[in-house]
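Propose amino acids for all 176 sites.
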C-alpha cells in the first residue's frame, strides 16, 4: 500500500510540475528500463545528447538477463542441442544512434518528445521509434520499439535472433 501511495503522490506532483521534454542543443537524456522480446528479457540503458533543435545522437546498450534455453535441432544441423544457454556475446548489444526529436515539430505537448531514429550496432543496422514524457524537470518515462533493418549474420548460430528482432522497451527517463 505504501508503494501505491508513493507512486500516486509522485504522479500527482509530477503532472503539476511538468517541464519541456527536449530542449535541443546541449540537452542530455538518460533512459533506463526493461527490454522485452521474443526468447528473453533484460535491461536497456541509453544516453542521448542534443545536437540541434530537433536532432540528437547517443548510445544504447541492452543485456538479456532471462533467456530461454534451446533444445532440439537448428539450421539443418544433424546433431541435436540440449539445454544450450547463450553466452555473454549473445546477450549483449551496443549501438550508436541518431534521433529526430519531433515533439516541438508537431507542437503536441512540450512535456512529450517523439523520436524516430536509426542505429548502428554490434549485431545489426536498425531503427527505432520512441517517446518520452516528463513529469518534472528531471524525471519522466519512456517507451521504445526497436527493429533491425540489415543483419550482420546469416542466422547460423542458434542465438543470432536474440539481438536481431523487434524489441519493446519501457522505463524511466532522466534529464541531466
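Proposal:
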Amino acid at each position: 500500500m505504501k508503494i501505491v501511495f508513493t507512486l500516486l503522490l509522485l504522479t500527482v506532483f509530477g503532472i503539476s510540475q511538468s517541464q519541456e521534454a527536449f530542449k535541443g542543443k546541449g540537452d542530455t537524456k538518460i533512459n533506463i528500463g526493461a527490454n522485452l522480446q521474443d526468447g528473453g528479457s533484460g535491461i536497456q540503458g541509453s544516453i542521448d545528447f542534443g545536437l540541434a533543435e530537433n536532432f540528437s545522437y547517443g548510445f544504447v546498450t541492452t543485456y538479456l538477463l532471462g533467456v530461454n534455453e534451446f533444445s532440439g535441432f537448428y539450421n539443418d544441423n544433424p546433431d541435436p542441442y540440449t539445454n544450450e544457454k547463450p553466452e555473454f556475446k549473445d546477450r549483449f548489444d551496443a549501438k550508436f544512434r541518431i534521433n529526430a526529436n519531433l515533439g516541438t515539430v508537431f507542437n503536441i505537448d512540450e512535456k512529450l518528445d517523439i523520436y524516430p531514429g536509426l542505429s548502428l550496432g554490434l549485431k545489426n543496422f536498425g531503427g527505432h521509434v520512441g517517446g518520452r514524457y516528463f513529469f518534472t524537470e528531471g524525471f519522466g518515462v519512456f517507451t521504445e520499439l526497436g527493429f533491425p533493418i540489415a543483419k550482420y549474420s546469416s542466422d547460423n548460430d542458434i542465438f543470432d535472433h536474440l539481438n536481431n528482432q523487434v524489441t519493446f522497451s519501457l522505463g524511466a527517463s532522466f534529464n541531466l
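The helical segments are 2-16, 88-91, 103-106. Residues 25 and 51 are 5 Å apart (CA to CA).
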